[in-house]
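Dataset card, provenance and construction

Sequences and ligand SMILES were collected as paired inputs. For each pair, a complete structure of the chain with the small molecule in place was predicted and serialized as structure tokens. The example below shows a pair involving 2-oxoglutaric acid. Curators did not alter the output after generation; any descriptive sentences attached to a record were derived from the structure itself.
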Amino acid sequence: MQEHIDRIREQGFTIIEGALPSASVTRIRAELDPWLQGRYPGRNDFEGFHSERVYAVLAKAPSAAELVEHPAVLEIVDAFLDRHYLLSALLAIDIHPGETPQSWHIDDAAGAFGHPAFTRPRAPYGISTIWAFDDFTTTNGATELVPGSHRWDETRRPAPGESIQALMPAGSVLVFAGNLVHRGGGNTSTGSRLAVTPQYCMPWLRQLENMSLAVPPAIAQQYSTRVQELLGYDVIEPGFMGYVDGRHPQLLIDPAYRGRKHRAAARPD
Ligand SMILES: O=C(O)CCC(=O)C(=O)O
């Protein structure tokens, strides 16, 4: 994984081809399919008027957990984010023919534009991934990236010709720094481009999707402890940030959880 970590440090992104077996591509696509029947069209130019977006994916397509906790991806994320990092967002994006390019943006400053702590250049506060469920081609809306832009300051905008397209076969994953300038491409082809994008953030940042409401305990229960922690059923140590009623949130899922015995014991309930 070191070469991928180095590539993200140098150019801001990397691609791992063949990271997802085709059986998983098929299974996750089938679970998403009922939600991709025109029910969730983009509501603005950023979401894309010719796109569909499915949020709260772990409440709808359980096999997507395989993406969220993919060992190669997490090994990369481990290298950039503080321990106890969180899943910030998990959505499917289906870019249909006729879609226009998104506006250029970064992923790790949502809700904090203009805040001094987010002034760039800075280290990434998030790592984003985009899993290809169709081949990403030159015409079907492949993500566009600006190499090196994770080192830019606030004022710099991409010049024509400065971006590249993330061309990759289905089953690949694009992994990039949350402060890399990028956008979804326009789709001038006749087919759609489906992607699923798990995004991870520092443990002290608010998640983009309110994960513990989007994936409440009864649903979170079916996932691995690692996925539960990424959703927010975890506390930051030291400090106990993320507690629920003075107790570890794992107790909402597993009443026998004993990870925070001494704290739980501090309350009689
Ligand atoms: O769909 C894509 O390729 C990128 C989408 C994206 O960057 C976003 O919506 O934040």
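Derived descriptions for this record:
The first helix runs from residue 2 to 11.
Confidence is low (pLDDT under 50) at residues 261-269.
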